Amino acid sequence: MQCYTELTPPTAVTHSVSLPFISAQSNNLVVAKASVLQIFTTKSVSAELDKAQNAQLQSSRTIEHYDSRVNDDDGLEASFLGGESALVRSDRSHYTKLVLVTEYTLSGTITGLVRIRSNTTASGGDSLLVAFKDAKMSMLEWDPEKHFINTTSIHYYEQEELQGSPWALPLSHYVNFLEADPSSRCAALKFGARSLAIVQFKVAEEDIDMDDWDEELDGPRPVKELSTTLANGTSSNEETPYATSFVLRLPNLDSKLIHPVHLAFLHEYREPTFGILSSTTSPSLVLGRKDHLTYMVFTLDIQQRASTPILSVTGLPQDLFRVIAVPAPIGGALLVGTNELIHIDQSGKSHGVGVNNFAKKATSFSLVDQSDLELRLEGCQIDTLSAENGEFLMVLSDGRLALITFQVDGKIVSGFSLRLIAPENGGAIIPTGITTLSKLSKMSIFAGSEYADSLVIGWARKQGQAGRRKARLQDPSLELDIDDEDMEDMEDDDDLYGDDQEPNKGPSQSPIMAGSKSGDLSFRIHDRLVSIAPIRDFTLGQTASPDKEQTNQSDVTSDLSLVCACGQGKGGSIAILNRGIQPKVIGKFEFPEARGFWTMAAQKPIPKSLQGDKGANSMGADYEISAQYDRFMIVSKIDLDGYETSDVYVLTGAGFEALTGTEFDPAAGFTIEAGTMGNHMRIIQVLKTAVQCYDGDFGLTQILPMLDEETGAEPRVDSASIADPYLLLVRDDASVCITKIDKNLELEELEKEDSVLSSTKWATGCLYEDRSGVFAKARSDKGTGAGENIMMFLLSKTGALHIYALPDLSKPVYIAEGLPFVPAILSANYAARRWTAKDSIKEILVADLGDMTSSYPYLIARHNNDDVTIYEPFRILSTTTEDLSAALHFKKLFNPVIADDLAAPAEDENEVLKTPPMRRCENIGGYKTVFLSGTSPAFILKSSKTLPKVISLQGSGVRGMSSFHTEGCERGFIYTDLRGNARVTQIPIRNTTYAELGMSLKKVSLNTNVHSIANHPPSCTFVVGCDTLEPFELPKEDDYHKEWLQEKDLVFKPMVERGLIKLVNPSNWTVIDTIEMEPCETVMCIETLNLEVSESTNERKHLITVGTAVSRGEDLPIRGRVLVYDVVTVIPEPGRPETNKKLKLVANEDIPRGAVTAISEIGTQGLMLVAQGQKCMVRGLKEDGTLLPVAFMDMSCYVTTVRELKGTGLCLMADAVKGVWFTGYTEEPYKMVLFGKSSTRLEILTVDFLPDGEELLIVACDSDGGIHILQFDPDHPKSLQGHLLLHRTTFSAGAHPPTRSRLLPRTLPEGSEYQPSHQLNGDSDGVSFPPAPPSQILFSSPSGVLATLVSLSEPQYRRLSFLTGQLVSSLPHHAGLNPKAYRAPLSSGAVGRFPPGVDAGMGRSIVDGALLARWCELPAGRRAEIAGRVGFAGVDEARDVLREILGASGLAYL
């Protein structure tokens, strides 16, 4: 059987909601990405700092394609006031950044998120109600004690009795959505055709009953005890925040609610009240009818489970599709249609605006004419900008921004208008349509998209000079109590209300009301969530150009890269993915004796430099050292004779030179650790036998020998850690030595006051400067001085973690005994059973991980097998005591990366390969990171929007590494590999991210819709199929339709796609050639085929073959074309050497009937298989440029995919509605034969062969996300001599239905269990290199997920399927969802009624790799227990098998 594994997480944002979730004061954004739930908090960063950091990283992270002045708060003003005013102004503005708190992968597809205000949650924050496909809901809240989400209720409405009539369609065929009452009294889930599930919540009754209590008139307010009475009157003893839910049939509320369109709960009603848009006419009968929609408002009486209609507006346009509740002071509801917007207030009075010419023709409803806007409102999103001003933001389906402004007279709405925001004011900063809008703060909003990057957008008002002076004249003497949150709002508003250096002390509301409408709004991007969704197509190819740079890049560049065509509309782009980080090599040289590097920026010994120090200190700790480059580098060496020395080098631009003439002694021995102390005034070199101190010019100032005065022993130093002003040494006799540098810059050993410190055997330890205050005894807002917050972490030989707050060595502030058991939550009172298995930990390190926006400390434990466990420390704030042991906990983070085997032989037989310690790096390419040396080198990277990820470094193992910051290599690093090569390198950061996918991702925007891509290996280029939208013109030459001539003056024409073929050079990812198709012609598929180009010489050539479709409206038949191009070398344009390739047309074949939807190579003679309309035809390329047909097969409806098993003539054709056809092709004579078919009810998107030993499996993916394994077996009695394919099993891909697939070779580790079965099938495949390689299928999906399907051997399958069962029962499942049910095939729909083929499954299923990846979440004892129970020899064997099948291990060439 097989195993399905997801390589990348989903990146398409489908839903979002803003709420205080973590605590009552927090400002959180919860984002749903199909099946992943992410919880963010917001952080305000000064715009100056953000720009400075971006400049420092030398990257234009694809944010600005336009002049930065354009969307600056004050772009217009700066253009005529000169640069100086712009400089002062930009200091004041702030960017809103997102910082990830945590994320969860759920076993379900999220279809809705709503905020439920609650006063019963443990955290004090609000609850979150999540709706899942098809009709499930879970209520989540934050548990501050576990730092985790807690599922408080699960609601399920998929029972048979709720499904309505027997002829009703499955639930998944209906639009199901979730809405909540603004006062959080109830929520409603609309599911099925016309069912409404109501969940009611507890509310404090005072909120409802006593809104209008006036103490002057009504006397003192009576004190009420908080009642636990539920909204329906029943009292509950169990404290649950919700009551029993019930299901309403909408026609029971009113007989007109037969076909509901949309509903929303309205603001400002005493009882839960919703407005619903519905029709009595079925959507299929609307042709020729007009204005048949009705908007009704109902008040729910939850006690009686009844409702009262209070309002009804009839005769509404039929194209309305959404109801949006408008908050006070405007109130009512906004109805959104494709051609108009209509507002209906509480009294039923309506105002409407038509936004295009169709509005008048489509409806008789009274509308204000704004047809000159020519907007299309399908797929638009609307949210509040400022309710007081009556301003709402609309994002159109093409990404343009529009402003809806309401005019209010008193409390009555007198009308509203729309206007587009000009591009110079940021009206075009969103490239394409979005799926969700959530307001983050007063001046920022989150726009989540399924089709491009999701953005945080901020806005400001451009004010005239008069308005600016008024803002400045506000009275500064008003002293008001302002809390932190208001202060943040003030900071956000500083850029609105003036440049004064004092923060605005006035009330935050009044200026908005006063000067609100005076200025235009200007929008700009504050932050972005990178997305590669939807992945429309992908290919593999060589992306590194073979030039002179390549010699340096050899060994650190992968053979191939995965190149995806992703995005939609203007957000179309190319994404280049690789498994590991491929460093940019600045310099490479042989350095076989080097074992470790330490670079440092030491101060020269000048007395005046102390003043410079103070100046540097005032800039803030983060930028103290960044101002100056590294000056020296100490290298530890082992020469060929095994002799240990150390050398010092002075750093130059991109390299280094040996430093001589100093007091540094190379023969003193092997350096263990080096760095600077005493505010960079002293260079510290830790040797095995002593610590040597030097001044800034390597003049020796002190030697501290390792000598135990009591025993006279001379213990050797094993490891060391420096955190100015302390130095920690761990020695080989398991003792520790802690020294401090004093004001005279002399090292002094600290006395071990605690007897435990001297008597315990210590294994490893580290020092950490606690900038965040997580480990501080008392959390305080006051900053600590340098060296006051140094924490010492020590791990004893028995595995107990001790934390000391230096310089206090009298007793540890925290002891946790359970670290070797790697529990999910590590706390001071964690205790395991006595016989529980442990993991052996060889090293711990506490380090800040993050980027320039945010960083946080993590505890990283490295095991003996080089695996890494990452713990995130958190404090429980509710504890009354200040005791750290009660408040501090560590939460284990998900890290599925399994390190490679340690079986790398040392070059020298005598040399024992000791893994170098983990290296903390303050700034590499803008990341605060930790580097893991050894045989599987990796960085632990974290951006502000991700959790820490372990990402491997491309190349062989690493002996030693250090950061390297010089003029020629800013924010880079130097390392030496096991082959003795040293490299000075940088992490590529321009348009490149790492932690977002856990892989290296480079994204190149093409600014147009991209949907297909192919690689041309001989020229090392990529061919991309794109399209642009242009107005549709009716054909002029048609003789049958004379009436078309009258329509030539249409002003609002429909938009149709016109295809483009672009040639892209991967040396710098620029478009070097573009070919435009005919009008109305779109590119359907692009493939690179090895075709025969000469019948006489039988010469073969790689050619680009393009299939197109010409669709000129529904009255004319669809035509197609097959275009064959070669990539030829030409003379490049001056100054652009990459433009030396062009596309040359070789053949152009018109297909009179039907589009060309799929193309494949076929047979052994260099012919092509073309799916054209309802035929599949084999064609050969003739020398005169025609394509001669030689064989064909009739198909059913629409062929989505054709595949051939290379060189065998065995073909698969997938039909969009009629299933899979398995056929054979013979060349003597030319003919195609049908072998077998699947069920004819399957809607297949993609299909592929999967060879497995001597079996040939067919993998078909349907439109519901089902992955079907089929097989051709003429011997099976029920297969009718093979005419029906056998159905082995079906597996659901859930929220990520595969739409493209490709058969790829699979790389296996040495001694894999899977290999022997393949040796049987050595040479019989006709492949040129025996034995036939193992294979896997790579899938891509619209949510941005890449997944693999790999074959397993029989023993592997049995153990792993048993293991998934054990994991299901051992692990917590978020939101109360069932992972087995999530992966089960859909029982409803076509697949449920009509099996894909003859059932031959024998109860077997595909193994779920997502569950196996959670193996790392188990504690060590549970892992050992389950591994034995499942049949593995031990944990190590289970680990080896998981490493082979999980992640991208089978794609080693990436």
Number of strands: 89
Number of helices: 21
Residue share in helix: 10-25%
Distance between the termini: 25 Å
Share of residues in strands:
35-45%
Uncertain runs: 58-91, 224-237, 466-518, 608-626, 904-912, 1316-1330
Query: What does the overall shape look like?
Result: globular
Strand order within the widest sheet?
85-86-87-1-89
pLDDT averaged over residues = 86
Radius of gyration equals 34 Å
Largest sheet: 5 strands, mixed
> Would you tell me the structural class of the helices and strands?
mainly beta
Written description of the protein model:
It contains 21 helices and 89 strands. The longest helix has 17 residues, at 1354-1370. The strands form 21 sheets. It has a 5-stranded mixed sheet with strand order 85-86-87-1-89. Strands 18-19-20-21-22 form a 5-stranded mixed sheet. Helix content is 10%, strand content 41%. The protein starts with a strand and ends in a 9-residue tail after the last helix. The protein is globular. The protein is mainly beta.
